[in-house]
## 1
Amino acid sequence: MGSRTTARRLLAAFAIVGLGLAPALAMAQDQPLTVQQAVKLEAGDALPITAFYDAPRGLAAARPGALLRKQAFDGYGLPAGARAVRILYRSKDAQGRAVATSGVVLIPPGKAPAGGWPVIAWAHGTSGVARSCAPSLMKDVYYGEEGLFPMVRAGYAIVATDYHGQGTAGVHQYVNKFAQAYDVIYSIPAARAAVPELGRRWVADGHSQGGMAAWSVAELEHARADPNYLGAVAVAPGTRLGSVLTGMTRSLSASFYLDYLAWAVHARTPAFQPADMLTGAALDRYGDVTAKGCFYYAYARFLGDTQPPVLKTDWDKAAAAQTFFRESDVGRQPIAGPLLVIAGEGDRTVPIAAVRATVKDACARGVALAFRAYPGLDHDPTMEKSTPDQLAWIADRFAGKPAANGCPAAKS
């Protein structure tokens, strides 16, 4: 049962049907959720942080992508016959420093086909910024039936990174495209070392924060030129964060994201302090929502507010903020392989206008991509409802079929 499915059923019990999870803002409907309910919801899905997640000594001496530790794990609610192997591996942060990153490999039931299981490197959406918010520390691996488990049933091995600072100790560099893309890329050799029946060829696929990561993987692979990389799918990719931030200051439901984004700027440039950006309730709750819980907890902490948050004047002109925006922007660099970009026309978390602008900019720079918009769909439903189309597109990549350039259509 997926985290969104689980959440919806639990929330129905709380008489708040229709709330999506994680990066979603079906929450823009201001559905009630108490802090106590959020704590119960997250605790019901949580798994303990064990010594498995501790970085070993000599981390910096290991090569990026080196497997540090593996663990068969049967505590997830996976599709029938599927199995899981947790991995700990050496990755890099946005500045290129050595970090330990955790994740999990989901393996379909049955015997691997000739050449090994085809691989999807999965990049998850916003789950929170605390260590406990790692998908591999959730019984449904956070997404569950919202795309993730259907991919397993379709016969793909899923290599699902947590991103460093989630699961592992250290700071999670939230919505930094380099940090997240490195974690995705280096999860692949580590997963192959842990699970020999994985095939060589792989695609990247991600939603929201992970959509930005998947697009960034495509950009980094332009220089890396991995012959086994076949393309990327970016669903509701977090992009043009400056404009998205402006919208969040007008929405009570999105207030907690401002704390997460202040965390992100500070994580990239520690000299930047949350008080350089936040004021009022957002600043007062910063330490709470970034440490005590994950997505639902942060959302619930702001539900009683009656006034939208106010940010400090000109905070975004600081050098740290400009670095953050620059390192969180996709669509301005060449890419390797085909790219499918998906957006929902009813998305209230990552507005489709921001995605369209990024797509048009990329097309104008000569990037070949396919773009699909889904009428009426909000953030999480876009991921869920587009999964069959994602899988069809991915199957074509493994079949060696050429990918169409949809840039002319994206300009409409």
Note: The longest strand covers residues 83-92.
## 2
Amino acid sequence: MPKTPRKSKSPSPEWARPIRELRHELGLNQAELGLRLHYSAMAISRWERGEQEPTNRAYIELGNLAGNPKCWHFWGRGGLHSETLLRVIPEMRERLQRSSFGDLEIVRAGSGARKTHSEKQTLVAIPLLKVVAAAHGETGGHPSNLLSGPVESMIAAPQDWCPNPGHTSCLRVRGNSMTPLIQDGYILAVDSSQNDQIQLNGKIVIAWHKDKGLTVSRLRRFDHTEVLEPENHAYEAITLGAKQRWTILAKVLWWIGKAP
């Protein structure tokens, strides 16, 4: 009786192999790589088997781990290209074209301090997430999007602007309670590793409430009372307490906005 021929396995997609190779180069198992990227070991396994392609955010984080020059493969899959970086940092265009990236060093997010040549410009790529931090009286996004939300684009920034690049992301502001300091539509860079309320007295923060979503405000401590204080005095401050269950999620590092 003739044997039924076995069905050959379909080849893995071309994006799966570089992920597996990067993990081996870093000397990590799937659980360890998942911890670095804020994904489960099962998700890493599905990526490497070609069963599920990583999100744009995951590709960007893979590129940050890979470092230059392999970062460009992963960033390209996530929608970031070298021409995008040059548009963000236009003053570096001539230097980069002249030196073929010899004076540019891309550091890996979360890799900590690295010694670099004094003439090199060290940059980190920060994802601009499709999530909104609302002003007082508005409703913002969900906190889970600070780690796993979809990516709108990328922003390149000097490393010394991002003390904890693995925990840094960007999001947009909606509303006017922080004017004139921060305008509607501005982009905030936030560090989610800095969330100690005692250390953040007087700082601009991202807070979250289950009914209000993500909110940008200034945290103030007065004796035993904490408030979220707007810059625009036409808006009321929010007193934090048992009845106002707000959580401080991140410190605002810096912000940018287009000129009118």
Note: The chain has a mean pLDDT of 79.
